[in-house]
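Hi U.,

Before I forget, here's the chain from the pilot set. I'm dumping it here mostly so it's searchable later in email.
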Amino acid sequence: MLSDSQNKNRDSILALFSSIKIDWIMFFSVIVISILGLLTMASYVSDDTFVKKQVIWLIISAIIFFVLSFFDYRFLNKTKVVITIFFVSLGLLFILFVLGHTAKGAESWFQVGGLSFQPSDPIKLVLVILLAKYFSKRHVEIANIRHIFVSGFYALSIFILVYFQPDFGSALIIFLIWFGMILVSGISKKHLLIVFLIGAAVFSVLWFYGLKDYQKSRVINFLHPLSDIRGSGYNAYQSTIAIGSGQILGKGIGYGTQSKLKFLPEYRSDFIFSTFAEEWGLVGVGILFLIFGIFIWRIIVNAYYGATNFEILFGLGLAVLFMSHFLVNAGMALGLMPVTGITFPFMSYGGTNLLSSFVGLGILMGMRRYRRDAHKDFVKNEFFGL
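Structure:
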């Protein structure tokens, strides 16, 4: 027989576990992707400092993920809170131009002792929250084209400050987040065409007045991949060689020559997908894509459970954020997009990006705590409805 104190302890533990509303399929999908990234990094880095740091960041990020899942995030649906977060984010980007640390030609890092922090990663999450708040209050009148321009102004404010660091890759993700959330908010096809025309006009202005020579060369090399394989096209060329040499089953963990001999640059961060493909081959890439697809699917499922339009749009915006990183990174590795220096979600080396990603998922799990049992037709058709 258990004593009264033991019964109370048992009840407390059971209550704690019953209060945890984690989508375990989503969580373990992320962990598997992260482990694949660690295995890939460990194969090619002779000094395992990077692997150890990434393991530490993964543990910290997972702990923060679970902690954040216990909070109620309905306060994020308040205008004062969201606007405050937005202006604080803009302030950080302004300060970056004064106090920022320059790395690889971009003044996009804060350096504090031995730690580096890149504000552009959490600010992507801030934009998702801001747009979710904006569109959730205007879903009835979303057909009004002015909402495209107002939401575009918010995104453009961040885009400009990130772009002039210069960090064209993160600026591209900012644009894709805005564009993706415009699509899921219910914009009309006529207005969608206007968005495309505006995008073309903005790109034209950037091409003639904004893009630096090395950025233009990347775009030109994207259109003509073999035009300068010893110069601006070197990274993309070596990436496609690495992926192609993996063939069906891959060369095996640690046996990829392109990465091992360091022909492929940034093999633990920007081009970790190419490194993985060389080791694991087409079969491994297919498995990776399947796991990532399950991960995105679970985010969308949780979004559909959202208590209000804000939670739904936040979840969909989070899916857009991760899909943008995935498509841009894999696209540049395969030579389908210009090289922009965007990380592969959860695989690439980088503490700030990993932490920001888990923060976003932790907020989503917090919203799961007060979700509604709506959208029953959708839920009924799930294979793994939890």
